[in-house]
Amino acid sequence: MAMKQPHVMTVGGATFDLFVRTGGAVATGEGGRSLCFPVGAKIGVEQIIETCGGGASNTAVGLGRLGCAAAFCGVVGNDQWGERMLRNLQENGVDVSPATVVEGENSSSSIILSVGSGERIILYNAGSNIHLHDVTFDKAKAQEQDWIYLTHLQKLSSQILDDLAALTEGNDRIGITWNPGGTQVKAGWDAADIRPLLARTDILLLNREEALGFTHSASVDEALKTLLGAGAKTVCVTDGREGATATDGTQVFHCPPLEDAEAVDTTGAGDAFGTGLTWALLTGLDLSTALRAGTINATSVLGSIGAQAGLLTNTEMTKRLSSLDLPVQSRPLHA
Predict the structure, then answer these.
(1) What pLDDT was estimated at residue 37?
(2) Which distant-in-sequence residues (6+ apart) come within 8 Å of 127 by Cβ?
(3) Cβ proximity of 214 and 206 under 8 Å
(4) How far apart are CA 210 and CA 132, in angstroms?
């Protein structure tokens, strides 16, 4: 679906993130896979950074920078964090009219402990995100869009799945990108409230662990075939340093990661990937190029602290697509 400045509304969470770069002052255990804090200790850290995050916030900012007319549908509190998140969206050209501000409620927040390898531990409070549900989902605004980008939802938000399925039933004008959250992954692809939307999803995004769990599969290829069989038109599975795999139902494409890319922080890399891939397909590029766009956007985000600092503009993305050597391999789906 190619169009001039696509109108895309993102649906999901917005979170105020406080990054704590622990440096070498914090002991690690289990082969570097855990952090250790002695009870009662006062520990110095390298840096503390305040940023805006959350799946729908990240994707709205990312799509806005890439030239889409982006809108954000989510819930924030009427506190200073909520004000800052809405201001950040507006400064990035995002329409916040579909957003809901809840009086007397704290906005969602995270404390993110970031270690030198780029990995992190997230301490998360859902806050006002729990109020995103059928009542606060702006159906009228959704009907005006060319595309809906659905990110992770809380359990209480599951009614929105039914709303989107009903909205797009018999309506090919509105496309859907869906990145299911933990609640949906645990329920499985064949759950009664998931199958109708899955059958109307144009772009389905999962990481490897999610894809295998969602489909109860033993391999990515098996998961791809199950999800295509359920009606998803394009399915993409990311796998960290192993790259990303996607299929349009005929061919399977694999894009490797960019070599020698520095990973300062992995937060938001998945959202950046999905944003780049969605933008590419919306603007008429093929799936192979879309995989490259997603990988390039995610790599840029990996090089900065926070989920949004490294998100690319349309000009930057176009330049990198033409200059970076990132070969994509393809094979028949049933090979």
Answers:
(1) 78
(2) 77, 105, 106, 107, 108, 109
(3) yes
(4) 23
Residue the block writes with tokens 């009228």:
140
The tokens for 17 are 């993130």
Per-residue DSSP letter, 245: E
73-77, 94-98, 190-194, range with the lowest pLDDT = 190-194
d(CA 298, CA 305): 13
CA dihedral 212, 10, 16, 98 (to 10 degrees): -150
State pLDDT tens for residues 35-83.
Answer: 777 888 888 888 899 999 999 999 999 999 999 999 999 999 999 999 9
- Mean pLDDT of all residues belonging to the chain: 91
Q: Could you give the CA distance from residue 147 to residue 167 in angstroms, rounded to a whole number?
A: 12
- Given the structure tokens 């531990």, which residue do they identify? 121
- CA 318 – CA 264 distance, rounded (Å): 24
pTM of the model as a whole: 0.93
Confidence of residue 261 (pLDDT cuts 50, 70, 90): confident
Residue 48, classified by CB atoms within 10 Å of its CB into exposed (0-12), middle (13-18) or buried (19+), is: exposed
Q: Are 70 and 64 in contact (CB under 8 A)?
A: yes
- Going along the chain from its start, the domains and CATH numbers come out as 7-12+55-73+138-332 (3.40.1190.20)
pLDDT at 13: 95
Give me 99's structure tokens. 């957003």
Query: Alpha-carbon distance 295 to 318, whole Å?
Result: 13
Q: DSSP code of 68?
A: -
Q: Which residue has the tokens 């390898």?
A: 117
